[in-house]
Automatic annotation (TrEMBL):
Residues 76-96 are annotated as: Disordered. PANTHER family: AMINOPEPTIDASE YDR415C-RELATED, METALLOPEPTIDASE M28 FAMILY MEMBER. Residues 1-22 form the signal peptide. Its EC number is 3.4.-.-. Belongs to the peptidase M28 family. M28E subfamily. GO terms for biological process: proteolysis. Residues 184-389 form the Peptidase M28 domain. The keyword Magnesium does not apply. CDD domains: M28_AAP. This is Peptide hydrolase.
């Protein structure tokens, strides 16, 4: 998650930078500045982004300020979109985009098929995936080990797919022009190939904010969500699951650097007119603060209310835990925000009540499975939710 729980050491830098806003940019200016290594950073909805060096970006993260890095996705505001934005502003929840071609979600009804699959979820398998993921020095978005980790995920998913030749699933890289780590998309086609997509996402990258070249195991952030999706994919593909409408599992590169991978993908999908039924983000699912009640906490901002209600029903139906509605996590806190920005309905089940009970050791070399509070049984519940989400929505 693009969150930092450090206190506002450098908050003044954020304020100063945000204060000097640029005028609307032309595409030529964007290309020229990007070629000089500058990055275009948007910290608030509907406000023109500002240019920053990479070091300034890292300072923003250290100052607990989230953002979209829109260098590759920027579009100059048209008169039309300005009008839409000003109309959008008075809404009580400005992040809530209208759902695209969604009329509602039927309550979960496929327990007879889903429960036997849930019983095939293996904690050993999840532990083995996470051991391998955290063994890379870091999974930093523009480093060699970040690329290696991405290729390891792809190879592992490909092996799972090949071991089940009856499955028509396929795994591919989604490369990004501006940095080295590719995202990954594993697709299970639907009987109705043109049907709306069900998307499940997690971010593969990790970061150490003290030294971006340093050790960043990223066990909770977001090794946990990445593994929830890997294991849900493994169980579905090895059971021969063939959905009615397509289901995609996506592992995003560059989340910690301003939601880079997910923006590239969401923009590409919006441009080619993909219909998206639902997008579920899993980002940090393994931490239970000692002494607190274990819950699955649903993010209320930049998510879709109807989809969030549906996920609460999934939790009721398939998980041992109760759900609650979380506190807002703010602008651009994780990759769901990229999908929300392009008008797709999203939901984000989080590990705990934010921010009080969330894991504070993220973005350091200490984000490991060995900390007090890292809970395998807790993160297991999110694999159940991912599996049920893919099955229930893909079957409709
Ligand atoms: C929720 O679904 C209802 C219809 O089922 C629809 O009228 C409403 O616009 C939806 N709201 C959101 C925020 O998607
Ligand atoms: C995962 O790591 C273990 C231990 O280092 C290794 O033996 C195994 O081959 C790795 N698995 C994959 C799929 O790379
Ligand atoms: C990734 O690294 C290359 C140099 O290795 C640099 O030119 C590029 O700007 C970096 N990308 C981002 C998005 O910071
Ligand atoms: C919504 O559905 C209609 C009818 O199927 C289709 O024509 C339209 O392109 C869809 N819109 C989007 C944004 O997918």
């Amino acid at each position: 998650m693009a969150l930092s729980f450090r206190k506002l050491l450098l908050g003044f830098i954020a304020t100063a930078l945000v204060a000097c806003r640029a005028a609307p940019l032309t595409q030529t200016e964007v290309v020229d500045k990007a070629a000089q290594g500058l990055r275009l950073i948007e910290t608030e909805p509907g406000v023109e982004p500002v240019w920053m060096t990479h070091a300034q970006k890292i300072d923003l993260l250290k100052a607990n300020k989230n953002f979209f890095d829109v260098t590759e996705t920027y579009e100059p505001p048209s008169a039309d979109s300005t009008a839409k934005l000003s109309l959008a502003r008075p809404r009580p929840n400005p992040g809530q985009a209208a759902p695209v071609n969604v009329t509602g979600y039927a309550a979960p009804s496929r327990q007879a098929a889903v429960n036997p699959l849930i019983s095939k979820i293996s904690l050993d398998s999840m532990q083995s995936f996470l051991t391998n993921l955290t063994s890379f020095h870091n999974r930093y978005f523009n480093s060699t080990t970040g690329v290696d980790a991405s290729l390891w995920i792809k190879d592992t998913l490909t092996q799972i797919t090949k071991a089940n030749p009856q499955s028509s699933a396929s795994v591919s890289l989604f490369p990004h022009a501006a940095f080295r780590q590719p995202s990954i998309i594993a697709k299970i086609p639907g009987r109705n190939p043109g049907g709306p997509l069900t998307i499940l996402g997690a971010h593969m990258d990790s970061i150490n904010l003290d030294d971006v070249e340093g050790r960043a195991p990223g066990a909770d952030d977001d090794g946990s969500g990445s593994v929830n999706l890997m294991e849900a994919y493994r169980v579905l593909v090895s059971s021969g699951f063939q959905p009615e409408t397509p289901v995609e599992f996506q592992w995003y590169a560059g989340e910690e650097e301003g939601l880079l991978g997910s923006q590239d993908i969401a923009k590409a999908y919006a441009k080619r007119g993909e219909k998206v039924k639902a997008m579920l983000m899993m980002d940090m699912t393994a931490f239970v603060k000692p002494g607190t009640k274990e819950v699955i906490s649903l993010m209320p901002d930049f998510t879709n209310e109807n989809l969030t209600t549906f996920v609460a029903q999934l939790i009721d139906t398939y998980s041992l835990l109760d759900s609650e509605i979380n506190n807002p996590c703010g602008y651009a806190c994780s990759d769901h925000a990229s999908w929300d920005k392009y008008g797709f309905p999203t939901a984000l089940p989080f590990e705990a009540t934010y921010p009080d009970n969330a894991n504070e050791i993220v973005h350091t070399d200490g984000d490991t499975v060995d900390i007090e509070g890292f809970s395998w049984t807790h993160t297991l519940e999110y694999t159940k939710i991912a599996l049920a989400f893919a099955f229930e929505l893909g079957s409709a």
